[in-house]
Amino acid sequence: MNAPRRVEPVDVHTVAAGAEALFRSTFGGTADGVWAAPGRVNLIGEHVDYAGGLVLPFALPYVTVVAARIRDDNRLHCVSTQSADPWQGPLSDVTPGRPTGWAAYVAGVVWALRQSGTVPAEAGFDVAVHSTVPVGAGLSSSAALECAFALAVADLLGLPTDTDGRRTLIAACIRAENEIVGASTGGMDQSVAMLARPGHALLLDCRGGDSRLVPLDFESAGAQLLVIDTNAPHRLVDGQYGTRRATIEKACAELGVHTLRDIRDVDGALASLASPESVRRVRHVLGEIRRVIEVADLLAQNRISDIGGVLTRSHLSLRNDYEVSSVELDCAVDAALDAGAWGARMTGGGFGGSAIALVPADRVGDVVAQVLDSAASAALPTPQFLSAAPSSAAHRL
Ligand code: ADP
Ligand code: MG
């Protein structure tokens, strides 16, 4: 069956009802509480997190909800409507590489909080998950799952959940994903899931972890930000990500800097790199950091339509210099621009996943039609379209 082409956000209480129903049918009784955390999209700042750069993501109105109940026998029992594999086992057995599969994202959060001594040895949890965040589309369903559960654990154990408390939870979620799941991730996804605010993007400095909110109101600017999930087939891209990181690390060593962010003389740095490939990679990173600052400045002046050109330049740099785009992403971006988008680019790590297009509200229908047409003419998978109003951070319902 074909997926629907436009996926409208579902009210968070409806998603919560799904998690609660799953909880009742799996575990019996009622949950102690219900917590939601959002997926995200990165407006700009791609492949700069590991270079100590700046990123500008915001939370989507698509959420992952966990219904959870505390136990006193050190066991985790978890089930999800998005997975055929429930998992249960003692939390004391959790270690890098165990469990495998989706339960690692859940168990890893408790493991990481235990490392810092904030979770009593006997604590365990029954957890039921239901989500409207597309899984594996580059919209960070993984961080939504970790953060919804981390907030649940914190609330159930009486840990702080103010901004400082959330920063501790962000660090635990990052460790869960890096060390227990074994996925390399910089921390942008968890930060925005925990710190986002409706009507704002989060300007996050990956060098020190500082962040600030930047107003982002597409509607009052007569615009829509379309998220285009290309539905591209999954590719083995771990190697590519690792190669890009290694190139950047090598360039830092060659240039004698800790991170590329520390470079002051951009032209001098590019001229002194030995390999043409390093020049292109570094040029992307340094240009992208400048583009994030440019977009944040334009947003501060509420010049939404003017960010379009910067988004498109970001895409060209990712495509030509960083070489992480794909035929599906290029097709979606080109079609959106042809049909009147102010700007468009791939978002996320690349090689598939999603693109975004900043579109005047009266051209949305044209852009959707053109993106669908272009994909069909090129015999590519049918994309689906999500709505992207900047939404709330993780919260208890
Ligand atoms: P993304 O975060 O971009 O969606 P990832 O590969 O980082 O893609 O994370 C996807 C993985 O996270 C899934 O394969 C699954 O293991 C886990 N996951 C995310 N959401 C859920 C969910 N609602 N239920 C079960 N597992 C989930
Ligand atoms: Mg992820």
From TrEMBL:
SUPFAM superfamilies (alphabetical): GHMP Kinase, C-terminal domain, Ribosomal protein S5 domain 2-like
EC number: 2.7.1.6
Ranges where the GHMP kinase C-terminal domain occurs: 297-371
A Pfam match: GHMP_kinases_C
Record carries keyword Iron: no
Domain Galactokinase N-terminal as annotated: residue spans: 22-69
Superkingdom of the organism of origin: Bacteria
Database matches in PROSITE patterns: GALACTOKINASE, GHMP_KINASES_ATP
Signal peptide: none
Record keywords, A-Z: ATP-binding, Carbohydrate metabolism, Galactose metabolism, Kinase, Nucleotide-binding, Transferase
Gene3D superfamilies hit by this protein: 3.30.230.10, GHMP kinase, C-terminal domain
Segments forming domain GHMP kinase N-terminal: 105-195
The keyword Nucleotide-binding appears for this protein: yes
Alphabetized GO MF terms: galactokinase activity
PANTHER family tied to this protein: GALACTOKINASE-RELATED, MEVALONATE KINASE/GALACTOKINASE
Protein family membership: Belongs to the GHMP kinase family. GalK subfamily.
NCBIfam families with a match to the protein in the record: gal_kin
Protein name as catalogued: Galactokinase
Species name: Rhodococcus tibetensis
Lineage of producing organism: Bacteria, Bacillati, Actinomycetota, Actinomycetes, Mycobacteriales
Gene (name only): galK
